[in-house]
Fold these 4 entries.
Entry 1:
Amino acid sequence: MKSYALSAPVDGSANSTETWRDGKRYLWLLGLVVPLLPLVAIGLQRVSGLDAVLWLGPVVLLVVVPLIDLAAGLDPTNPPDEVMEALEEDRYYRWVTYAYLPVQYIGFIASMWFIATQDAGLLGKIGLAITAGTVSGVAINTAHELGHKRENSERWLSRVALAPCFYGHFYIEHNRGHHSHVATPEDPASSRLGESFYRFWPRTVVGSLRSAWDMETKRLARRNRHPLSRKNEVLSAWGLSVVLWGALVVWLGIGILPYLVIQAVFGFSLLEIVNYMEHYGMLRQEVKGTTRRRYERVTPAHSWNSNNIATNVLLYHLQRHSDHHANPTRRFQTLRDFPESPVLPTGYAGMMVVALFPPLFRRLMDAKVVAHYGGDIGLANVQPGKRAKLLAKYPAPAAAADPELGPDASARGSVGTSGIDDVAAARCPGCGYTYRVSAGNELEGFAAGTAWSDIPNDWSCPDCGVRDKVDFVPLAHEPA
């Protein structure tokens, strides 16, 4: 197993160097179990003749994995600071995520071929479509990991992973919308205290699509292009899905289309049920005394975490969601657990099942949200129309702070470059992205020479999406 040096030798001997090893290094390959499920299901059906085995995908994800989570326990280990850079640069971990895609596509195409050409009965075919949808849903997590990276090749692979479930706009909305607005009422992907998954689902599906389209419209307007331009990244992402689905319909016939829709809806619903529980009730407090509505910077306290090892390995540390929101460009193997992060009762896979039963979910989670805010639900993100009922059930402590006051602007830790015009460049203090005036950013719609003062005040870092313009550090000279 590969080891990473923690410190330099103290006596000149190479053997005296302390090392650290990633105990999960080869366990990450278990992430390939999910894309193999359609092939396994088809094989089992051919051997046994039982159509029921074609439902293998949801059974594994929603029954087997939660049980393994309970048996395997927690993984609180964090990589030490000294190895973070070397661990980030270890390309083995990149290839672990890259490997998901070819297996995903083989299983997806095989599933559609089987549905179109083999006699498995209607329920069996629906089961296999949902098994394929399980793969597509988990592939959105793979796309999530790849889409946050700076390399263009990985961002392109992210769109490829999203194509089977026709959810390519996730790449735009998640990176540039969700990460900027997370845990606020403006975010369609942040659920509210008292909101059921069934109320959240249409709000987030429609709201995320609208958010992605609006952001692309604004970006293209800065480039003097129409929203229906071929440069629209929402349309180009959907174009991959149109080509993929169109090729399958031409090959296998129009009868395959309902099953493509079934797997897509099931797949992106898995994403949205994870979104539902990741920020349930979490709210960043509004910053007062600013020229436009802004919120305190996202912290580890704004995401629900879990350290159940089985789901962590299966979903590339997605459950360490707090560190991901603080450091979106950080690779999965270096994500860490924070003691201040609120913790779910069990792993994401188990909580997905619980979320399907709103009374049970709220029985487990509402009290946790209230406790997280010291008994004051006025500090939580509450479902409109439920506030009075929830206040009656959870009355605020007498000494609770007035939520209308909000934190002052210093809570943002802002450097405050929005009022500084004469800068050659400005750097994001979070991820290090640097805007150079001489180069501009053509993709964002800023031509070379666009002054920092001409960048809109509501613009966020294009790499991490966490820091706003006002947070950027001014540079008198462009970095080499």
Note: The two ends are 38 Å apart (CA to CA).
Entry 2:
Amino acid sequence: MDAPYSHRDFRRPTFRGPVDEGIRELIVKRGEAYHGFSYPHSPLDVVGWDGAVYPFAFPILAFQPG
């Protein structure tokens, strides 16, 4: 009764898959020189994991205390 949220505020997370932003060019600075590279695929197609797996999602932007 004291919590500003209820069980209805939590939901199951949905997997949306990787998103291709269309970035194909990469600029790297080494020393005082800049080098440009172009890739046929996106260089950002990696998956990050912070070491935590939660079976629920709490959308903080949609949270409205009642």
Note: The chain has a mean pLDDT of 77.
Entry 3:
Amino acid sequence: MTPPKARFPRDRSDKAVTRRTFLAAPLAFAGAWLPWIWNDAKGRDRRGAPAYSGGGGSASADGSAPAYVKLVDFTNSGKRKGIVMAEKVVKTDAEWQHLLTPEQFDVTRKKGTERAFTGKYANNHEKGIYRCVCCGNALFSSDTKFESGTGWPSFWAPIAEQNVKTETDVSLGMKRVEVLCKKCDAHLGHVFDDGPPPTHLRYCMNSAALDFVKRDDSRE
């Protein structure tokens, strides 16, 4: 009788191939997935919010972890929806230039100022809210807009204190208070203490930094 070992001889070449295949499989799997994981980690926050077109935010332009800011969300009719944690929008100059007009870019990203009486919202009397032209953050309401005679749209208060921030500006050799969008750091204008009651403040804004949304209560 033939011994079992002789009847079924081992095919050492097949076993070697099987062993090599087994050992190589995890490496092949890792090689296929690592580039995707790396690119996702670098680019997951580059989803790209357009300069305001109703989109959301993009996080850090250098691929770092996104930062978040506390804002008050509003409907287009000016109705307060509540406090939200929103991703801070950060883009490169090249990205902003692609999304904004030259004037919008100069004002919002380079802290420029449009000429008095040239902005499209200086004499706007329609009801609605003014959003940031870069990220869509709600900034001002027509309810606080007033005629300042300065040639720029003026408001005695933002729609929510949480949605804007201020910084000291000494760029012209004088001390002024700069107003910026809390969500994307867009330069909006300056605030002065010569406004009407009840705040006695005048938020002097650039039309180029704003996007007016006409009130339409029927959509709420």
Note: Residues 12-43 form the longest helix (32 residues).
Entry 4:
Amino acid sequence: MLSEHPSDVKFEIGHVLFIDIVGYSKLLIHEQLEYLEKLREIVRATETFRTAQREEKLERLPTGDGGALVFHTSPEAPVKCAMEIARELKKHPELRVRMGVHSGPVKEVTDLSEQGNIAGAGINIAQRVMDCGDAGHILVSKRVADDLENYAQWRPVLHDLGTCEVKHGISLALFNLYSDEIGNSEQPKKFRTAERKIDIVTPAAPRKSIAVLPFENLSEDKANVYFADGIHEEILTRLSRIRDLKVISRTSTQRFKNTAEQIPDIAKQLGVATILEGSVRKAGDKVRVHVQLIDAENDAHLWAERYDRQLDDIFEVESDIAGKIAEALQATLTGAERHAIAARPTKSTEAHELYLKGRYHWRNFYAPGYERVREYFEQAVALDASYAPAYSGLSLYYAWAAANAIFPPDVWPLAEEYLRKSLSLDDTWPEAYNTLAAVEIYYKRNWAAAERAFHRGMELDPNFGDLHSHYGLCLSYLGRFDEAIAQTERAMQLDPFFPGTNVHYGTLLFFSRQYDRAAAQLAKTLDLYPDNAAAHEYFGNVCAKRGMSHEAITHWCSALNLNGRSEDARVLEQTFKAAGFDAAVRTLGERQLEELDARRTRGEYVAPAHYVFTDVKRGNLEGALAWLPKMAEEPDWFALQMRVNPMLDPLRSDPRFGEILDTVTLKN
């Protein structure tokens, strides 16, 4: 599957209405024919059906007792059609019909009889949605319900049912659509069973695998949450250095902070056999750490310990916990790994606390206080000039912002200076190699050196999900998509709930033009994080490339609203309704151009790439080509994605594009 070539993939997102007659097999033969023909008449007479058919935006898949309608218009179409059918069925009580609606990947295929057919997950899941209902029910998947939630008129008729187990252990979150006029308000029988346990067959978790749940802050001073978070992260970091263990990244375990979910359920979601729980109480220069290691399968305690220590003994506590866990899980440790988990990076407890505060604010990057990351790390190295992780934190602060074109390129030398200092003090700190890879590929354009940095970082910390994710994204710039996907899927195993990794996966699938897979991944991301603006924006880009204009506008509007640009979203939606897709995109481009110019007037840094993408939206290809050489020169990720980003396709036929692209060279 990983080696599947993009040209072999012909899936599109279809909006599917699946219909069947309940009790069809018990009818007499002549009744079956009569009922089926009557149902077909009712369906064909609906306004939604006729409109979609006239616009050639409809496909039909007959079945023995009903059929599927695939609309290539909007998520509302199958629901409107279902409501029209339901109103007409009230005149025919003998016709006991149920319906299911889902949006998902579909494609045209040729079956064994050499007849045209439709296949794909969109069809299969729509049928399973329908199968959960009884006569009169119109059930819709959560995916469809989320789309409909954008429109006020649908909210009163959508009723959350929870989850229903369907074939092959899959569970679906479903909504019942009904009003006083249509639908069936009764709870479906499948939701009334005494036991609806979902038994999903998943591969057994490796015996030597662990997730460290966020530590509870028991300090009287609740501001000490940074300290509890820091101890949690440092124990996890020490464990992740052990190659014989599978260790889930912090960003995914954070999802279960203050959760009511049971340990076995958490372990199943994270794919691990054991869970570490803990708490931290800090009072002055004293600290108490309590931990317990739990076998997730039977919820039994494998080991527990309480540490009452002075604050300057905290590194010994972390090392002891990591060693005891490794012993309990019978993990084999090399000499280097024993040294790594026993490391004491600073002798200054005050510098360490400042470092933990910097890490805490870095993890909450998008919250107010971003500059405090830099300030805390600077204060830490001022107190201890030999504190390698603090220098690494400073280098990451500058390199990340420069690579993403948030800061101007002139901060790269500072990022490199702090990085070299960190490595000179400790060349075994894994995080430094992620930053080194960024410096080498974005700033120095030296791919060979960047790849060496990735590999060295993975040797030092085989469980560092960020490294695999970043490496996968960089491989995608070179068109090495099979390798990119393999690296990113490894990152997903180590950090399944991190929004960044999930969005990166969708991004590189988009770059590889596997639009159906990109859509599926981004839909999954939005199921987890419905307020992730980047996921909405990329999903909109995917939809635009597949000709799904309504969905593209919907997701772009969501991204704009989440980014505080509600007026742009309102104008985009209004223009789309009044003048169509192309006009809406041009209008959005014009508004974005005004914003970019205003930022430059205020003296803010604006990456040339933003002007390129904005001019492409505006249809001003000459303007985009004029900005393109500047985009190619900038040491950021936008320059490197020029070769693969489908959003630049309108420029590729111009010979100047190829000439400019040739200037973006990487040393090998």
Note: The two ends are 29 Å apart (CA to CA).
